Each structure stands twice: as structure tokens, then as C-alpha cells.
């Protein structure tokens, strides 16, 4: 079963997702990138909320890296997530627990 899966993973290289780049007005441009990433969850029990929060963290790191690499430090970035639990954790005030 693993060999079958491994052979099919190679086909993922053929997938192309177009990026959207459009001009809003003079000297204004918007660029939308779609990012997907998968990780294998640990065998120990990790909650869905924690995995969703990890996805938000990975997305923020990716956006930061893209901004630095493209030298776009002054560009506004908007993050979207459909996980209300992760958004609640991010917006929470007060002392945060260490996230590892």
C-alpha cells in the first residue's frame, strides 16, 4: 500500500495552481497566493485545535519568508483561517503558554 501511495505522490508535481495578480488602480497591485501544506500528525494525542494553530503558525512563517525574499517589507498581508478555535487562541490576551 505504501509503494502505491509513493508512486502516486510523484504525480503531484504535475499539478499547477495559477496565481492571481491584478491591478486595483494606478500603482496598486494585489497578489493572491494559495498555499497548502501537509504534515504527518504525531502518534501521540494532539488536538485538532493545536494542529490548526500550527497551520496558522506555518502560514505566518511562510508569508514572512516570502516578504523578506521579495524585499516587500512594507507590504500589508492579510491572513485568513476558517478555524474559530485557532483564531480565538491567536486573539487571546494575557500570558500565552509556550507553543512548541
UniProtKB/TrEMBL annotation:
Pfam families: Peptidase_A17. InterPro entries: Retrotrans_Pao. This is Reverse transcriptase. It comes from the Eukaryota. GO terms for molecular function: RNA-directed DNA polymerase activity. Keywords: Nucleotidyltransferase, RNA-directed DNA polymerase, Transferase. It comes from Caerostris extrusa.
